[in-house]
Design brief:
With 369 residues, this protein is mostly helical. The protein is built from 17 helices and no strands.
Length: 369
């Protein structure tokens, strides 16, 4: 009976974060699905999908500074992140070009091994075909730097939570004004950890004061309005910046003041509307989907490559070309498709893994007997 009560409480406790995680994953998929151009449709989509990674770091921050020891965190990092990351990196290395349809299976598997060593110099094991994995390598660095991040978090007193958020936001605004020359934030190395830390502390603080933020209905209304206003402002800024410099795509990135504010707004909005999800079956479903996002994140580029090679993207473009706003609609639909297939394949892999583990355990027990 106690176990049932405990499980129910865990379901109630986590589903908001899991739904938030799903939204972040959807935005990341959308970022990789969309076309890279300066057309107004693509700029709008880029602004809409820009902050998925910011959500991931927010969630990391919400739970990073718990009571687990540094040793426990390193062990969890190895078991849950590094082991599957190495496995899927090898899969990408061996089969991605074949999935893309750019070479035969034999040529794809027989890559020259100097490619590995060239890429090792940049981001450990991130190959050209799996550059989206930068996030996981920065995550590894974040956990390695945990003692430092923990010490800084302990300096932030509850009475200074809101002041700290304002200071972090002002620093990002100044960095935006300087077009990132102030902090030179990036997707890798120490500057990647610095960029992530803004959102880690954001998640840490907001999750501490979540009741104060979420329980006020006015905050939800303000969050919705602010989200829409910032989308328009970000869109206008990017259009003007791209007209001056087509290669300047800084304001599409998540580590900006836009990403900071948008992440808070989205968390408030999602937390508010989650109150209307009361049936345990729906909550359990959200939790399950949320648990699939890590593997889904890793494989979604591979899934997209296969779908592109099969002509799914081109077929969707053909089906929607006569509809108003066809380019926008096709990219939203394709994002939904890749998002859904990635979660489905992740679920299938999880089931296969569970079956193999059970078979291995049975064979081991038989041998032991």
């Amino acid at each position: 009976m106690k176990n049932k009560i405990s499980n129910k409480n865990n379901i109630k406790k986590n589903y908001i974060i899991e739904l938030f995680r799903l939204v972040g994953f959807f935005m990341v998929v959308g970022t990789h699905v969309k076309s890279i151009s300066s057309s107004k449709t693509d700029v709008l989509l880029a602004c809409m999908f820009a902050d998925g990674v910011a959500i991931f770091w927010f969630i990391t921050g919400a739970f990073l500074f718990d009571k687990k020891s540094y040793k426990q965190k390193l062990n969890k990092l190895f078991q849950r992140i590094i082991k599957p990351l190495v496995f899927y990196t090898i899969i990408y290395y061996l089969f991605y070009d074949y999935a893309m349809g750019t070479c035969t299976l034999k040529n794809s598997v027989m890559h020259p091994f100097n490619v590995i060593f060239n890429d090792l110099r940049h981001t450990f094991l991130t190959f050209n075909s799996s550059t989206h994995l930068w996030y996981l390598y920065v995550y590894i660095l974040v956990i390695i730097c945990y003692p430092v991040l923990k010490k800084i978090s302990e300096l932030i007193k509850p009475s200074n939570y809101k002041k700290t958020l304002i200071i972090l936001l002002l620093v990002l605004i100044y960095n935006d004004v300087t077009s990132n020359t102030f902090l030179s934030l990036s997707h890798g190395g120490i500057t990647g950890v610095i960029a992530a830390s803004f959102f880690i502390y954001l998640g840490h603080i907001v999750y501490k004061i979540k009741d104060e933020l979420v329980n006020n209905k006015k905050n939800t209304i303000i969050a919705i309005i602010l989200l829409l206003v910032l989308l328009v402002i970000r869109f206008v800024i990017n259009i003007n910046v791209l007209n001056l410099d087509p290669n300047n795509r800084f304001f599409f990135r998540w580590h900006t003041s836009f990403g900071f504010i948008n992440t808070i707004c989205l968390y408030i909005i999602i937390s508010h509307f989650c109150r209307y999800i009361k049936k345990d079956i729906f909550i359990a479903f959200i939790n399950k989907l949320g648990s699939l996002t890590y593997r889904g994140y890793i494989i979604h580029i591979f899934i997209m490559a296969i779908c592109d090679n099969m002509g799914l993207r081109n077929n969707l473009i053909g089906l929607t070309e006569k509809i108003s706003y066809s380019h926008f609609i096709y990219q939203i639909l394709y994002t939904i498709i890749i998002f859904s297939i990635s979660l489905l394949v992740s679920y299938i892999i999880e089931k296969i893994k569970a079956i193999l583990i059970n078979l291995t355990n049975r064979n081991y027990n038989k041998e032991k007997i």
